[in-house]
Amino acid sequence: MKVNLKTLSESLGLSQTTVSRALNGYSEVSERTRQRVMEAAERLGYQPNSQARQLATGRTDTIGIVFPFSVSTIGDIRFGEVVSGITERLAEHNLDLLIHSARPDAELETYRRLIDSRRVDALIVTRTRVDDPRIGLLQERNYPFVAYGRTQSRIPYAWFDFDNETGGRLAAERLLALGHRRIALVHAPLEMNFAMQRHAGFVAALCAAGIEPDPELIVEAPADRTGGYQAVRKLLAMQQPPTALLVDNNAIGALRALGDCGWKPGSGLSLIVYDSIPFEIPLTYKVTSVMQPTGESTGQALADLVVDVLAGKPLDQLHQLKVPYIDPGETDGPPIVFG
Amino acid sequence: MKVNLKTLSESLGLSQTTVSRALNGYSEVSERTRQRVMEAAERLGYQPNSQARQLATGRTDTIGIVFPFSVSTIGDIRFGEVVSGITERLAEHNLDLLIHSARPDAELETYRRLIDSRRVDALIVTRTRVDDPRIGLLQERNYPFVAYGRTQSRIPYAWFDFDNETGGRLAAERLLALGHRRIALVHAPLEMNFAMQRHAGFVAALCAAGIEPDPELIVEAPADRTGGYQAVRKLLAMQQPPTALLVDNNAIGALRALGDCGWKPGSGLSLIVYDSIPFEIPLTYKVTSVMQPTGESTGQALADLVVDVLAGKPLDQLHQLKVPYIDPGETDGPPIVFG
DNA sequence: ATTAATATCCAAAGCGCTTTGGATAGCGTG
DNA sequence: CACGCTATCCAAAGCGCTTTGGATATTAAT
Fold first, then answer.
1. What CATH number does the domain containing A19 carry?
2. What range(s) does the HTH lacI-type domain occupy (chains A, B) (predicted)?
3. Does residue A45 belong to the interface with chain B, where contact is any CB pair within 8 Å?
4. E strands, chain A, where?
């Protein structure tokens, strides 16, 4: 019942070589024969066995991505969009996406296995850390990959990233220009690349303005659901709370905390958040935010980079740095001076 | 440099057969030899080529899921969680998830290709429709699959679904018990299974109460971002608006529309929505909703079903029907009588 | 007409694994 | 000592495709 290359070629009275070539568009086959072959393949519903082809060619036409257990979606309401963007763009190149799940404590070993088993042609590395051993592993094995976020590495590699340092700086400069001096920062753990970069930009802007960053006002929020919420509650409970606040992550938890404390735009505390507020979240006011294109376009960019890497383009040219900008809203203004 | 079964067995002075058996835990190899083999494999970093193994065994250890282009995330803020749940649970069985993207207009052809190319061992079919040709195709080809949502089919198959009919009925009954007579329903297109079922339950409850469902009050909202919003606006703009409203989908758009019209809980219109409001959405009141376990637990249930299907369990026993219940909030109450 | 080039096709050798169908050796039984 | 059993191992045959290295027929060049 099932038709493979052998039965197909026999039914045509041709060799497997010729049929294979005809179907794969080689030139060493006459046009007439090719038509016959194509027609027969269509009629019999022939579909090459991909395992056999993969074994013969060494390609899998599959790109891999590793999701760590359980942390995959947290704090990342839009990660689904990124995946969606990746798959769509990959599909244009007849590539699939393989999702591999890893226990967070065995992440590196998982990468090693995935590489050695040859299940995928390339990998997309997400959630890069400042010093990321996965990058080193992949480079050492000479394995094609694209990083979603830069890390420290002398050897060039393909990456997509946001200019988080500029983002942190822009937000701080805006608040400084409004007259704020006590500016707080709620940031994700600094082992995360983006958090470190935003933090650096924020601190740099303060220093450039001659302000010594107050450690009390720079708080780390765990990358879980309540992290942002609790960090903001803590800041608001201070004896001398900040007059302005930059939230580099988990804006939703922060907004909720502010709301629970009766905060409203213009009521004293200026707020800038990183990333746009997802459409799904109804707010009666517009939040001033550090904007960067995220979601599906990010996924598409990643997919494009993967395709370029596989095409053998020079790695030191495969960089995409998206520069954020401030999208003004109603949540920031000059500090309110009491007395 | 790269070590395969041949080099490994040669370095051990054993046949490929024996090495293969030792590694795969067969009994026909002495314990001493097995130890030697395992040790050498570990030391040399041997990792079987998965393509070769797949070709030889006919298994791929991969489960497939098809994402239609662009519609994938719309109206489904939680779909990422489902995928996350699937991959995690599959990983426990050493299975991966392959995401394949399809143009919506060529969905069936995409399934056919995916089946015939043998890329995956089984498929998870999502967004089932009332009469879904994909189910028929898979059954015809005798291909293992699990449906996320039931459809019409005489032949048994594995599925996971919510009891949407009960959900629609429960919501309507609650509103009826509160004294409402003009109850509106905003529903997704009825070709979607869940929409049809919720609709049926809703209508049945009304009829049972002796109320003729008013076609004016039953409006279809397209499954896009603004569908729910516009449907609710339309209802609120009626000369004689409903006193109660059930939203079967896209609660967020509906809430936004209500908010834009100055609606507040207790202000005259009762509201029940389907599904819980995502944690990320800050609301100052609790919405009465038809609850059902969604997100990661759904993904895990789907993965479990896949594993059972592959294990050959009888399909007519592989059903999971989750019954929803009403989670009371502050958004419904008796109708307000004027005059 | 002869030779060289070209077009067209094919047999067979992999790709790296699993698995079938023996082969060999050790061992207790009668 | 012959026999049957079990334990242990191996050679070789696939799995279904691509690709190498010819072979043969056809056409162009001399």
1. 1.10.260.40
2. 3-57
3. yes
4. 62-68, 96-102, 122-125, 145-148, 158-162, 183-187, 218-220, 244-247, 270-274, 289-291, 319-322, 325-327
